Request: fold
Amino acid sequence: MASFSIHRAGNSLNLTLRSPSHAHYPSQLSFKPLCTSATPNGTTSGRTAHSRRTTTQYSPPSRLPRTYKDTYRKPTNTFEQDTVSLPTDVKNPLGVRIDLIGLCNEGKIEEAIEYISRGLAASFRVFEVLLNYCVESGSFELGKRVHELLSRSDNSKNLELSGKLVEMYVKGGDVRSACKVFDKMRERKLELWNLMINGYAENGEGENGLLLFEQMRKLEVGKPTGDTFSAVFSACASEGAVEEGLLYLDLMKNEYGIVPGIEHYLGVIDILGKAGHLNEAVEFVENMTVEPTIEVWEAMLNFARIHGDMELEDRAEELILGFDGSRSMTDKVPVPLQKRCSEFNMLEGKERVGDFKNPSPYREEAYDKLKGLSGQLRDAGYVPDTRYVLHDIDEEAKERALMYHSERLAIAYGLISTPARTTLRIIKNLRICGDCHNAIKIMSKIVGRELIVRDNKRFHHFRDGKCSCNDYW
Reply:
């Protein structure tokens, strides 16, 4: 089953998906030179691949996530702090007092934002709740509205709120906006530096991530942690910087005294594997100071399939079966095996969030658009890779199943419901399949739009037939 919902504001559109699948703060200096070099960038369980379904509501969530309601429940003696009078010039002749925190706890986020935009003063606590909601829910467009309101308030220079803004923009794939907020901060905690480095890496800007790490070291912001080096290895993998990655591994151990964990070894394997150095990757695994885990061999299996090393593929399969005899290796699909989990697709539209069920009459236009796109894709050279359909059905049915993958349905609906050239932003909780990756690359060239897909590995910025991940999805 698949679902997606929509929210649009300004000239961009956010889509979030869940699909059934197997499937990272202190200096007083700013980094204007670094930012000028950064590249701007604009549940339900599955049944069968050819009968995906999607769900969508046409109203905001009825309440905040439990954590917000529990954490930010309004104290009994803070009336002046959280409940304020609406200005008399905002159609409020009776001086009605508005409880912004209460509205947030009830899930009326847009209503609270509307009151603030009409002149109602909001406290630090209100902005904190709003930004937490935007970060956790992935409401990127709402977050930008909150940022605009925050920039005009007395809390505009608050470091904690600024940190939340950086987190929101990084998670939305907008590292340029994250960098602008980051540069204006008087102090930055180490965790925020890690987040920025990792954000660059996930958006295909590994070089900027490594530059930021070197800047952090020169400023002596603080001793890098294991999380810092995990982000650094991710940046090296994004950039294909093999030699630098191995040097940073030595730096981590010898200069900073950090004992590598399995996550760091996986990071180095990712660097070697993406660069095609499979022999070196095998030698690295054999010389690790910890016993290789099933995740290590799944990574090796993935790279063996990508680079066509059948001998390594067979060896990795055998070792994975040794960890888990229930694993079936009969399907030669070049993606790592993952546990089945629920999926969601969310497409955000202006003033509302919608749930779309499949099949639904009001989505016939999206299906028609997708059919038309499929013809254009084939004319542009797209050939369906039916290895990604794991069901015992005929070839034609497999191709049809691929065509209706949830991310493609979300894109099709976005294309018919937004102005031309609008960026479509898709958030997916599982890894995008290789066939959809190839199709969306071609699709971005056909429709002349930037299509941003966030899966559980990284952001994929599709522009003019190319992807920021350099095809190592």
Observations:
- Confidence is low (pLDDT under 50) at residues 19-94, 329-347, 349-362.
- Strands lie at 3-9, 12-18, 83-85, 97-99, 345-349, 352-354, 423-428, 451-454, 459-463, 466-467.
- Residues 428 and 455 are 5 Å apart (CA to CA).
